[in-house]
Amino acid sequence: MSDTTAHEEPELIQLLTPEGELTGHPDYPLDISAEEIRALYRDLVLVRRVDSEAVSLQRQGELGLWASLLGQEAAQIGSGRALGERDMAFPSYREHGVAWCRGIAPKELLGMFRGVTNGGWDPHEHGFHLYTIVIGSQALHATGYAMGVQRDGAVGEDGTAVISYFGDGATSQGDTNEAFNFASVNNAPVVFFCQNNQWAISESTERQSRVPIYKRAAGFGFPGVRVDGNDVLACLAVTRAALDNAREGNGPTLVEAFTYRMGAHTTNDDPSRYRASAELDEWKAKDPILRVRRYLENNGLADDAFFASVETESEAIGEQVRSECRALPDPEPLDIFHEVYAEPNVQIDRQRSEFAEYLASFEGAGAEGGR
Amino acid sequence: MGTNLTIGKAINAGLRASMEHDPKVLVMGEDVGRLGGVFRVTDGLHKDFGADRVIDTPLAESGIVGTAIGMAMRGYRPVVEIQFDGFFFPAANQTFTQLAKMRRRSAGKLSMPIVMRIPYGGGIGAVEHHSESPEAYFTHTAGLRVVTVANPEDAYWMIQQAVRSDDPVIFLEPKRRYYEKAEVDTAAPIEEATPMGAARVARHGTDATLLAYGPMVKTALQAAEADTDHSIEVVDLRSLSPVDYPTIVESVKRTGRLVIAHEAPLSGGPGGEIAARVTEECFYHLESPVIRVAAFDTPYPQSRLEEHYLPDLDRVLDGVDRAFAY
Ligand SMILES: Cc1ncc(C[n+]2csc(CCOP(=O)(O)OP(=O)(O)O)c2C)c(N)n1
Fold first, then answer.
1. Is residue A348 part of a domain?
2. Which of A27, B126, B208, B242 is the most exposed place for a label (fewest CB within 10 A)?
3. In chain A, what residues touch B97 (CB-CB under 8 Å)?
């Protein structure tokens, strides 16, 4: 047996303890105002609300599926707020908090899970690629994009950095490992941000890796760092440092945000079949939102009025998510044929016109006359 | 002002012209740099365009296609070389789930102007995994365009058309025909070249249509020549997806018979699809069922057996005879 295992809990980069004490970290100094911390608190609360609202909507049959970010808010908001405007993020499918930071409206995220779209937003407009379901694929896209950034000469102090998000399970995929290697040999300006939420559906991290994930980076020739994924300040500081490092031409970093998925994998999943409730209780004590609140309260940096205003905003967002979700229109049947090819395609054009004719044959037949 | 070129050299010249025409065009793959590719198709490009535009990649096909997708998102036009047909499979996931679907997933916001060049097909006495005909995997996948070339003229122009296309193009290069030579008018304007999606009547005839593509076009032309009893029309398909049905249907309506020859295995191959469609559209014009001449539904055999596996002149002629037996 090796003396290290994937679940060992080494020292994490932490700036804010679960008790709400700001400790800071010598390697990751963070110059941040109380106002900025309040803004992070607001982000955390609001994305949690968007998420819980979406879970309810799924229960009510309004969404086919939802992948909850519960517990991972700090990892996502911290890293998401570290991104600059020009930077480009390549998410998997749970990065609602990062999407929030990139200015994607919540309703855009719902479209895919409601089944009205497979994407929903313009990746270039938001610097946020489409959600990617096939595990690990996007790590390569991020790396290729970063290689393009290099060729554009957009590396340097004002340069562009790229970040790719994936889970601990994804580190078992060939694509993720190929991405590490391509990024390394090309010194590409990309940050690999792994949210190790301890589970890949029902498989624990130990089923994915014999070594702690951040240590893999060394084998590919770039630094790996493990950060407390429930500490929004640490995630912000560590990601910012990694992005700046990439931006300045020093190549990739693997950030492992050590966190926990407090909810189910998706709304189809039943975590009680594979994990103990004691584990959940242990992680609830490390709640990413609670510790920021404690910090703000203990240091008199936010009053009741502030917390109440965030609560009011959260209610409003909840209402907005509900109504906007229900208002998302179904696509038109002929949409099936749209945007498959950039250039005219005779085969698809023909099938589209045949299907249009077929649909038209029901017109006037009355609602029940069709099928 | 023709230049005498082999298919391999014509693709090379076409790539060079593409790279000169558009600084965003990149070439990437295994050994494409200083070696110029194992078939030397990228010969000289590394020297003239540099390592930033002719990229020797790590030995990872999924990585090659996956990073090309990211490069395309950043505004580049990567031309990816997969060293041999049988090594495409590690990249299948990126090709089918990402490359082909990206435009549709993004509701048209993202284009994938990527060309995947694959030397394909048998007949070179290679070891296993070096002689596959994977075209049906691609033609079954919406979002990809699939083309192949049979002569230097097409090789020179079609590679340039493929590079200019905003759709992902699977560019199949018949490796046993790399050394076929002919005159190419490289000075003609690209607009005058036959469009990439069009089939071409390679030989006119009146009694039967013989449809082939890529490496089989030469065999089909030899068969048409050899059959002195009949006047055989040969159609070079050129584009496997989309298929230029009007050209095929027009030919079959005139000749009344269709024989399709390809190197890919029979079942689920492109021939079956074309046969079905032609039957639908030409039912009352057909004098005989559509006949397919193809490889067997077996793995590509060891090279000492490939002459039996690949449809050769005699098997194509036998197919033509079957069409006339009705
Ligand atoms: C290639 C592939 N295989 C299987 C799946 C089904 N699947 C969806 S999510 C998941 C677990 C992923 O775990 P991880 O990478 O740790 O990410 P997390 O969901 O925990 O964020 C699996 C197996 C998939 N989407 N893609």
1. yes
2. A27
3. 134, 137
